[in-house]
Amino acid sequence: MSGLYFFVVKRVLDLAVSSLGIIVSGPIFGICALAIKLDSPGPVLFLQTRVGRHGRPFKIIKFRSMFVCAGGEMLNITAMGDPRVTRVGRWLRATKLDELPQLLNVLRGDMSLVGPRPEVPEYVAGYSFIQKKILEFKPGITGPASIGYIREETLLADKQDPDQFYRQYILPRKLELDLAYCTKATLMKDLQLLALTICKVFSPGHKSMSSV
Questions:
Q1: Strands (DSSP E) along the chain, which ranges?
Q2: Residue that wins the pLDDT comparison between 76 and 207
Q3: Rounded distance between C-alpha atoms, residue 99 and residue 49, angstroms
């Protein structure tokens, strides 16, 4: 059942929900795009290379949340208070609306609604043999690790080297959570994770798994 779910049922769910989501959220796309353009010069969307299923690279799509002239837009880690983040960008990140364009990634088949969070090639290159098993599955917009570390920027805020802390402490735990999900994914589990994601987004004070 798990194979049938991952490669048939899950794709049907992705197509149906992402298509509906893009249609329904059309006005939100417009508001976000306008706010970004009015707030700072540069493109509305931000594309970054991530590693997908079977190690295939793809361009993840987000609303731009940083100054183009910052020169650090391509840095992989962003801690709370990062001066590169624009005023509108702070709001987009807090509400997770910067992730909304990834519905297009789902529609194209690069991603799923629920799945392991895709990482940049630099981090994937450091995966252990066991951690590389995560690449057997299509990455998702949300999932156990995304929910558990939904306030990740707060955890990184006081670290002297946020990148090193992420690689050594946060990333291994996120991979562990996502690998556990991949071994027992079901339709009901995915629907629960989608609902929990919505609840987490509207509960900014809720603790992440990492701090429990």
A1: 45-51, 57-63, 112-114, 140-142
A2: 76
A3: 15
DSSP one-letter code for 119 = -
Calpha distance 126→121 (Å, rounded): 9
Kind of pairing, strands 57-63 and 140-142? Answer: unpaired
Q: What are phi and psi of 114, to 5 degrees?
A: -120, 130
- Cα gap 164→7, rounded to integer Å: 35
CA-closest candidate to residue 1, choices 193, 196, 188: 188
Residues 108-117: b if buried by 16+ CB within 10 A, e if exposed:
eebbbbbbbb
Tokens standing for residue 109: 């088949």
Q: Output the CA–CA distances (angstroms, integers) from residue 201 to 96, 105, 135, in the order listed.
A: 7, 20, 27
What are the tens digits of pLDDT across the range 19-58? 999 999 999 999 999 999 999 999 999 999 999 999 999 9
Cα 139–Cα 20–Cα 86 angle in degrees, nearest 5: 65
- Residue 147, SS3? helix
pTM: 0.87
